[in-house]
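User:
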Amino acid sequence: MKIGGLPEELFEELDKSTTHVKVTTERRKFGKFVTIVELSDKGNNIDRIAKELKKKLACGGAVKENRIELQGNHLDKIKKVLVQMGYAEDQIELP
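Assistant: Predicted structure:
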């Protein structure tokens, strides 16, 4: 659907550049790591973003409580992947 004559994809790209992304890791039972991605803008299609992250990082994961949980520790790769997806590098917060 077009808004004001402009393609909807344009607005999605603008949202990505202003969305604050917080990335953390948690240690779960049996010593397994989980990478957690939280987006400040809840308007994003979180299921589509999770699917793309899982594909690019070759891992499993789920969307729970409006955050993306990826299996494994991906702190070393996730910033590069998020920048490739269109998120602003200065808006990505890593520990």
